[in-house]
Amino acid sequence: MDAMSAATSAAGPGGQVRIGTELFQVRDLRAEDQESLLRLHVNVFGPGATPAWYEWKYAAGGGLGSGVWHEGELIAHCGGVPRPLWRQGRRETGIQIGDVMVAPQWRGILSRRGPFFQASRAFYSAHVGERQGHAIAFGFPSERHLRLAVTLKLLWDAGPVHALTWDLQAKANSAPAWAWQSHSLDPSDLRFDARVDAAWQRMRGAATALTLGERDARYVRWRFCERPQRRCHFLAVRRPWSRTLAGIAVLDLTSADAQWLDWIGDPAAIVAASRACIAHAGRAGARSLSAWTSPLVTQSLRTSGVAHQSVIAWLGIPRASSLTEQEVAGMPWWLMGGDTDFL
After folding, report:
1. CA 41/CA 277 separation, integer angstroms
2. How far apart are CA 78 and CA 138, in angstroms?
3. Which of 6, 96, 173, 196 has its CA 20 to 30 A from that of 111?
């Protein structure tokens, strides 16, 4: 047994744990911990976490977190943002896991009952499950993170998340002009929220057999319009003969490698949406278009002319969720990059 597996006491929120000869404090994040969280985030992930980002995610977004402190310094953290989910037509409380991080100097002991385990267990115990207010939690760990969490009985493996890439020059990706039309939407337009809500209701009504996150105007504004240092583009897709939108695609066109972040609309129209996104990204000067997709979305896009497909992350479901392992294995998740908090 190594030093980090020699924990002598349980670590819940507000508690202490001795690992080897060292004493650690494990507790929930507080408002006064903002600087410590930002410092750890920059140390682990690089620049990007700013006070404005913290305000967006942990204040306006209602973010929650549990951390491990050593000698007054935050060395490990597990957090999440509440997100209503719809499963088989029913609304459930959910939370999207994020900011799972351990200071570099502690990474060599990412095993057994070290800081990673303590922060994750504390967060899941305090915030995940029907009694804790969030019946279902989900996150997007790397393969290494997932394997460790599965071994520690923290997460269930719910399958891969793919990265799809389209060739913007491929003629096969061009939609017939008569079949679909698309145009940009401006979030400052007074009709924007109503259009998003209508697209979401259309999606929800057509996706009663799926598990997906809520995409109403409130969420869309917080996730895509209010996030600091990000500017997203909204593309409305419809039939030429209809005033009703099939849906709204969300794009990040800030670099030459464009990202398709989300589709708010009828899942059956997602191939048409992909072609509208390809055409729009090409006109904007992008050299490629990519998207993160769960297997169901990947399968739905099989005829869209995808040039390359790979596994980019994994879907992890905390075992503290109000689900059985069998339910997790069979859940039809509809997820895209916008369901993360970091893309």
Report:
1. 32
2. 12
3. 96
> Among residues 61, 68, 70, 58, which one has the least CA distance to residue 121?
68
**Are 181 and 238 contacting, i.e. CB atoms less than 8 angstroms apart?**
yes
184 exposed, middle or buried (CB, 10 Å; 0-12, 13-18, 19+)?
Answer: exposed
| Residue 2, pLDDT score | 33
- Encode pLDDT of 205-218 as tens digits: 999 999 999 999 99
- Rounded to two decimals, the pTM is 0.91
Q: How far apart are CA 262 and CA 279, in angstroms?
A: 16
Nearest to 246 by CA among 226, 270, 281: 270
H or E stretch covering 204: helix 192-206
CA dist., res. 274 & res. 131, Å (int): 40
Q: Which residue in 272, 199, 288, 280 sits closest to 240, CA to CA?
A: 272
Is the pLDDT reported for residue 10 higher than 90? no
* Helix/strand/coil for 167: coil
258: part of which helix (H) or strand (E)?
A: strand 257-265
Angle at the Cα of 287 from the Cα atoms of 281 and 290, rounded to 5 degrees: 65
Question: Which region among 116-125, 167-176, 318-327 has the lowest average model confidence (pLDDT)?
Answer: 167-176
Tens-place pLDDT, residues 138-152:
999 999 999 999 999
94-102 and 136-138 beta bridge pairing: parallel
